[in-house]
Design brief:
- By secondary structure, the chain is of the alpha+beta class.
- It has one domain.
- 25% of the residues lie in helices and 27% in strands.
- A hairpin with a 2-residue loop joins β1 and β2.
Length: 52
């Protein structure tokens, strides 16, 4: 499965966020406590229908 776009609405600390992914390797980076893991959790939730 390839993910091209993730749209988050009222998920954890994101009120309304749209994230576009490229065709190759994508790197999620940022300061501590800004929501990097929340992006990964939202993808996991859509794939497995449960929180890790």
């Amino acid at each position: 499965m390839y993910i091209k776009k993730v749209t988050l609405n009222n998920f954890r600390n994101y009120k309304n966020q749209e994230i576009d992914f490229g065709d190759n390797v994508n790197i999620i980076y940022g300061d501590n406590a800004v929501g990097k893991t929340n992006i990964i959790e939202s993808i996991f939730l859509c794939a497995y229908r449960k929180i890790f």
